[in-house]
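Chapter summary example.
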Amino acid sequence: MKTRSEELLAFLAKRTFLSLWAYPNVFRPSANKRVPAKEVCDVIAVFGDDVIVFSDKECQFPSSSDLDTSWRRWKKRAVNDSIDQLLGAERYLARSSPELYEDSFCTVRLRISLPPQERRRIHLVAIAKVASSKCSDLVGGRGFLGITNKSDSSGESHFFLAQPNDRKFVHVLDDTALKFLLYHLDTAPDLLTYLRRREEFLSRPYTIICEGEHDLFFSYIAETEKFGEARTFPYPPSERFNGIYVLLRGMWDYFEDRDEYKVWRQESLSSLKWDAMIEDFIQDLNSGHFLRGGSTFGEVEEMIRAFAGTSRLERRKLTQLMENAVEDPRMNMPGSMRRSFVISERQTTGFLLLCTNQQTGESDLQYSERRGIMSYTHALVLKYVFPHLEDIVCVTYPSIGLEPFTWAPSYFKLNVLNQEQVKIAKNLHSQGVFAGEAIADTIYDFEKLPVNPSPRMYPTVDFDFLKASET
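The structure predicted for these 471 residues follows.
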């Protein structure tokens, strides 16, 4: 039976990793058949080459009048024991082929595969619970525990989580910090990027002191002009630096009241439709719908991961482009199409967005087939123009409303185009598809180019080019 804390952690992990990549209570078989299987961790999340291992210890804070004794006892049970479990899990997961099961009898293998050993990145996260409320009672504030990277010692301050510097890095988060992070980093790429940068920051050679995860997070996003675009932590000022870097207190509380934060939260709401599309994929996979055509679980998972591998900022951009198309009055013209694409932050994935309506007299099957042809041919052009792209994610959708159930997603993993594919791509490209030509009736949808970041312009066109590509 799962504990309350494990259920909460599983729920929070699903907020970022959805239901396909996060698994609670994972076990490994014992070498001795007579000995029960051993629980590896409370929750494991596997997303591409990244593996996050969570250990959650719910431990009541002692009620002793001696705060120093109470803190040490709580910390040993809630933090140190979690770290020990995580280090043991990391040693096992670092093996070439660790066996993982979803049940204690080791009969159901973990359906998600670990990445190859040479590419496997393991992140360890210990969740220290209950002390947050005690911290809030005694020192006020929201209940965030303090953070420092100084050496762990018995003389450390109460309600500060120190990072031991003589062991593998472990992210030690209180439960308030965990909820805060998963609220603001609610996609897999955003959370994984933060964990990597957080480890780099707290592994710096000088002492870092911060009064809570919220202020640490503020320092992460404060270096950019627009909230949500940061990818690094700051460095201390060179003047009068004495080896101790103390982050300013209360900066997140100040920032949370600013208009920039409120606008960012509001703008993110529409991008939740992208999340809903991913969950629909996962439900189709769980129901067996995706596997009926002969695809393997691994192939479908890779496709879904391509859609889920978008940051919140990317999802905002993509859904904004789709909303622009839906609101474009030219889409009411017969045969109109609006197309746009975005190069991902990883620079290896291209996102195609094709808006087209069902034509008069066109059956549902014909409409579906036409959208499939559009997706494929446009993906060929995109690969032809940007040969460095490794995979292309495409969504075709009508301009009548913008609901995920009307979207037709597709995924293309194109290594090298063959002669026939090059012929189709060159033909479409010569007709202006992603050619960047300034044509009178233009739509400004081009968001980002790795070679030229200036906006490009593309026309509204009819579907004659499809007939040309078929001949």
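To summarize the output: Residues 67-93 form the longest helix (27 residues).
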